Amino acid sequence: MSQATLNIGRARYALGPWARIAGLTVCALLTLGPVVWTVSTSLRTPADSFNLPPQIIPTHPSTAAYRGVFDQIDVWLLALNSTLVTALIAVGQMITAGLAGYAFARLDFRFKKPLFGLVLATMMVPLQVTIVPVFLVLKSMGLTDTLLGLIIPAFPTAFGTFLMRQYFLGMPKDLGEAAMLDGAGPWRIFRSVYAPLARPGLAIVGVLAFNYHWNEFFRPLILETSGQNYTLPLGLVSLQGNLGTGSISVVLAGVVLSMLPAVAVFAVGQRPLREGITSAGVNR
Amino acid sequence: MTDTTDTTDTRVPVLRPRAATPRAAAVRPSARERGTRLLAALFLAPTVVGIVIFTVVPIIGSVVLSLFHWNVIDPPGWAGAANYRSVFTDSTVLVSFRNTLVFMVFAVAAQLLIALSLALTLNGRMPGWLRSLFRSAFFFPLVLSAASISVVMKYLFNQDFGVINWLIGLFGIAPVPWLTSEHGAMATVIIVYVWQQFGFSFLLFVGGLNNIPKEIHEAAALDGATGLRKHLAITLPLLSPTLLVASVVGIINALQVFEQPYVLTDGGPGDSTRTVVMVIYEKAFEQLRFGEASAVGVLLFVLIMAVTAVQFRLSRRFVHYQ
């Protein structure tokens, strides 16, 4: 439209684009620097790990630190625990949020408004405020110091329910009405018409859940007391405790190992993750 | 009773094909309506029951527990306001509230400022691939665990062999006692937190900026608005709903900070980085003072509600909806 005018407007400060890109590059280096340093230090020999200036490309590359991690902690067990907990929570949240979101968006029933209000209100309640009673509830169920105790309370997700409700609301109503005219009942309409369309929305819920619970620290710290129920973040912090400041590269190798699945999810699930976060600020 | 509370979707009046036939107009709910209600109940059960057991009951539980003395081993005894009295005279608790508020102010301000300037800068003209490269870079720390990042940062900020002090040494700055002095420790906790968290507000702002119609900026450019003035007069008011969400979420998250101070400083030196959530954790699970821990939790809850309410009140004056 007014492309020419805009270009004239921009020509007034022609330095603009390059200064912008340079500034953004510096910020990106600051953001990624610690991660690059972590990876490169984990590939140095423990003896070289203190070297300054830090070598981005290790002079004596070595996987000794990684072997060290496997010697110190049972990485496979921790990874298995983390995977189990995270995967079950992600799948559980996709199911609960998908069902509840659909009910709030497309079904008629009594007390819909107050129930939805209740769900939204719980988004405001910080976990730390309720953790003591939650611990006691789990204790009475015999679920403290079990992986199930981490998994079950995380199934309901207020944010996920909200997200899925918005998602279903965005789908055309006529599809369900057409199916109803063809004689489909409410379950068939959900199962055959709307549920298949909801896959991208469910992916957002799943990826958000994976990212949050893979990295979760506070609940496992409180609930899991014996080492065989530790998840990766707990194991890492204890790895650091065992070694003090003795060998940086071993601790950092552990950090890199625990980051790998998160990075994989970042690579594959970047778009759902981004959309999940963005929709918190945009669709209200 | 039919529910018409669904205000977000009013495009098409609901078609009720069966209402035309006399049979469906009967007073008793049709089989289909009963089927719908049953389905709704089944669909909601997991979420609602879960929320009641793991959020609603625990909130009430926290309030009740805060009125009792209890250490899990002995039977609970009535305490009345005693837990609150002891919490209000406990210097560690008071300091933790002060620390948390100081942390909140600086962390949220820094996070919003950095995220907003990066989002605005990124919004300018540049090749698409470069834009998505930058966006991914700023977003990346968000997918990492706060606990392991804090482990990494503990080495980077080490006074004697840390990379940060080596780096500023290149500019002739003397080594800073990042984690071993009171102000340094708080500053480090804030830096580490902001480093990881600004990507969240950044993504909110990127989404918000995308929602602003291009025509508005083009019209403003025609009127001769440029640079900073354009942002202050046009972009910020249009972005204000997103700014409100970013600051509300930012503040709620900041008031719950735990991993960073726990791993980086363990609350020290002294109590200088001990936060409210650390105190809840220590009182409940290290000292087994469940009543006092619950009292601190209730106070944190009240604080969060109060701060959020003030924000929404203030926002009425500054937030513009399109």
TrEMBL record, chain A:
Keywords: Cell membrane, Membrane, Transmembrane, Transmembrane helix, Transport. Signal peptide: none annotated. It comes from the Bacteria. It is a multi-pass membrane protein. The chain crosses the membrane at residues 21-40, 75-103, 115-135, 147-164, 197-214, 248-269. Pfam families: BPD_transp_1. It is found in: Cell membrane. Residues 79-269 form the ABC transmembrane type-1 domain. Belongs to the binding-protein-dependent transport system permease family. PANTHER family: ABC TRANSPORTER PERMEASE PROTEIN MG189-RELATED (PTHR43744:SF12), ABC TRANSPORTER PERMEASE PROTEIN MG189-RELATED-RELATED (PTHR43744). This is Carbohydrate ABC transporter permease. It comes from Streptomyces camelliae.
TrEMBL record, chain B:
SUPFAM superfamilies: MetI-like. The keyword Membrane applies. It is a multi-pass membrane protein. The chain crosses the membrane at residues 38-68, 101-121, 163-180, 192-212, 232-255, 293-312. It comes from the Bacteria. PROSITE patterns: ABC_TM1. Belongs to the binding-protein-dependent transport system permease family. This is Sugar ABC transporter permease. It comes from Streptomyces camelliae.
